[in-house]
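ARCHIVE CARD
SHELF: 3
SLOT: left
DATA:
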Amino acid sequence: MLPDSRTLGLTFFQAYCMALAAIGSFNFGWNIGSVNIPGDVLENCVTGRKYYGPFPSCIFVGSSVAWGVITGSYALGALIGAIASNPVIDKKGYKFTLSWFALLNVAGALLLSLTTKLPQFIIGRVVVGVAAGAANNALSTYVSDIATPRSRTIMGGCVQVACNLGIMVDNAIALGLAPPPRWRILFSLTGAFGLLNFILFPFARESPKWLISKGQYEEARVSLTKFRKGADIDAEFDEMVAVDEANKARTSDVNVLELLQGRTPDNLRHQLMCVSALLFFQQFSGINAVIFYSTSIINKSTKSNPADIPTLAQILSFLISVAALVFTVLGMGLGAIFGRRTLLIFSHMMMAVFSAIIVPGTIRSVTSLVVVAVFCFNAFFNLGVGPIPWATAGEMTPRYAMTAMSGIGTGIGYVSTFAIGVLFPAINNWWGNYTFIFFLCWNVAAAIFVYMFVPETRDRPIEETVRLHSCGIHTVLSSKYVTVPIEHKAETAQLEEMRTQETGSLLDGGSSIYEVR
């Protein structure tokens, strides 16, 4: 007898489609990290100003605010991509969105690698940002759609894993490609990854839930069978159809404006608050200050000559990105054991601790202390604060509002990223060595918020989470909001079935399996 598909963990085909979809998030990380190591070359022309044919060796910026705009413009593009992709996902599906938006990376790569003026470079950053915003928005809901409750724990972190892998690979290659004119090759590679995404993703399967929502039941059954190979899909498929029909009977898919105005059958205020706040805190935790500016932060202590590429600060930035990837994978495993809520609280509190340690390290120029603190700050971010918020919309929201909720959450995340990218250089100039006190306060506030308001969703069916928390904004400290994972329910159901069978046997005159013989 085949097992019920709802009890499956991660299958090979789920992982395969997730990997193809994650190419877009890999590119997202690549472009986040691309301005870190070559930053001094591009911004301050530390290797000198000269021309290679029509192309200058650097883009002289002249002010930290202007460089902040360059850094943050990528997030502005991502915000546009997240918003623009929502109606495309609803109408055309995930395969179309993840494939065609990827081609924008080719256009962005041409603008960046062939840039001669500052405005051209900013426009190129915005264009690749649009592609990244669409990719991350589609990926987070696509993964939620194809995952089972048990595999969602692992698959929910794929956005952050792919992102950190992109940052790490970019930093590794940048050590050799940061000097002029080779940095142009570095920025051109994002186009190659976009083209690869466009070619490969059509080999993935469309979300069965999206197909059901469009009335394509046979295709949905074929798709679900592929995702749940070796299991009986009948109960899960019927459940998907029933949920879809129930949602359609109450409402059609809602858009961002309707969700913000509360014009939904379920009261989703609490979910909206949680998704928005978690992605806001994710960016204001200080991680983008480290990702965008780790080289300059560490260089304050090492005092290396930025023209001597690769500098010690640049090498250490690469090693930090390696650790970030390792801890993201570790965090996915820990999330399966301890749960999302516990890991988020722990992650934010440890980031607050190491924010406090960075301050005296930079004041006294203790290089080893600063490096270790930045390393641990990044590591603990990737244990929980990095991967978990991306999965929240897909784990707390009904299908009819999932795309809109994901768009709002990622939009807030990108606005916050833009704000940090633009403001950090100015904050760093004003606060100097005390800058990370700013992030310490945000991390403490985030930990308190999670403790008070964010429910545990590990291994819980989405429908159950929606039912429990669609009652307006509330704290989750009451016992009535505590639920059990799906495998515990399966065990309980089996025991109840055994007891029912035993009772029937006794009524028929049989003997109990517990009878003393």
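SLOT: right
DATA:
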Amino acid sequence: MAFFSAVFWLLVAAVEAIKNPIISGWNPDPSILRVGNEYYIATSSFEYFPGTPIYKSTDLANWELFSHAQTGPDDVQLYGTPTGAGVWAPTLSYINGRYYLASMTRWTYDPVARVWPRVYLSSSPDLIHWSKPTWCEPWGIDPSLFQDPKDGKVYLNLMAPNNNADRLWGIYQCEVSLQTGNCIGEYIPLWNGTLPHNSSARDEGPKMFVKDGYYYLLIAEGGTDDLHRSTIARSDSPKGPWTPAPNNPILFNGAYGFDNLTVQSTGHATFVETPDGDWYAAFLARRKVNGTSPLGRETFLTTVTWKDGWPILNDGKPILLSESFGKTPNQKYPPAPFKDTFAISQGPDASWYQLRVPYTTNYQTGRTKSSKHGSTSSSGITFSPNVFGLSDRDTPAAILRKQKSLNMTFSATLLPVAGSLGYRQSVGISAYLSELQHQDIGIRGCVNATGMCFYSTLITNGTSTSNQVPLNSTTIPDNITLHIRATPLKYSLGYSIGSKAAVWMAEIASSWLAFAPANWFVFSGASFALFASGNGNPWPYNAPKVGFKEVNEVYYDENIPDHDVWN
């Protein structure tokens, strides 16, 4: 298969290059900002907490997780929030020597209730310590702030409906107070893009900037799936009227066929200028693998050149995974293995998330003390399980990390436990997309049998398939590791004992972690989870404490082809 074949020229690619995606794993709606010689990108986080990850780079090629904008329950409320809702589409700005984040929260978005999104602003001196949200008067999605360099006025641009009756979505604007979030100028429509303006129109992601005397309005159109694209218009005023670019759409891989190129759904772009005067666009895109995208929408980058006052992205060519560009050192690939031993009591690595906002303490890291209930003393993460599991719209005792590669292994070694688990107590790992779709492997009390068992559960659109294998032990020994082997086309779930080869209990097509059931929405991508649960019952007072000693991720060459062709 393509991802196993080594291609020599990939190993000797030019050292002066950027390769896509620049931030792998689901990181949609990227907003890029340069301040001095440093670049920052903020992306959507949806129902995951902490919210709004912010990445940092000095060369546009290599990015590290720098901070999060919502780190406490006062920053964002995500109680009962389903997949597809939560914190969307942030935009970073730098205004009067201070960083600003414009974003929105949608508390629920499911087949029964679709609460309208609320827009807010927050600010920071350093991208680490953020003010509490200032809620804005307009409502909509994809807000952004723009400060006019001519007079210093600040405008709020966003996607919003014309009213609450017709609900025709378009790009709207008002001059805004950064202190109150209220409009202090007329609330006006700006531009409805290039596609037909009807009830299905989705003009979104407005980004405004000034170049050579023109105001430019960069937007996304076509929804966030195959029709997604970027278009642009310009004006002599931030209020318009707007003249569309003659080469619109300026970014649209779908023009070459939805089932042709691997890179699809290109759009939601933001431009940035380097200190040397070069221009780039950060944007979201999917890597389609046999028709689906288990990693969701990732962050990509491409070049921007200018001709007759209009931008040309990637020299007018489609975005291809095989192409490198730019003047910076190439990213190291595959990346170095990831390991977390949870050795410090301050918490796990910053790349771990919880589902929704936790309102109880459901894990601790560092060295655990011996317990009369069966746990031994060891460094790692110990869970305080509750009644909730990964299928519940609440906060289970679980931490999750985004899947970073289409070809990798996620392994987690269990902490030893001196006691036994009942059939409703479980500890394990998961390939997780949403509360509706996650694929689990772990240890629990055997169902309809005595003792403890390894078990696997596969969930496919409401249908659950389980399997179990006896552990043949009344305790969890210190040499058990759970594994998820992810390849572009499938996930395999297994376990190993000591140095023995892994035993694979189940496998499932990767497409099951790439889409939502009917009438639901999934805007994130696959993650890996560690979890423990009472599965509907409180964790017994005399049950052992459970957790994990360490997690290891190993990445392999992906070699994903430019065209979505798999045999």
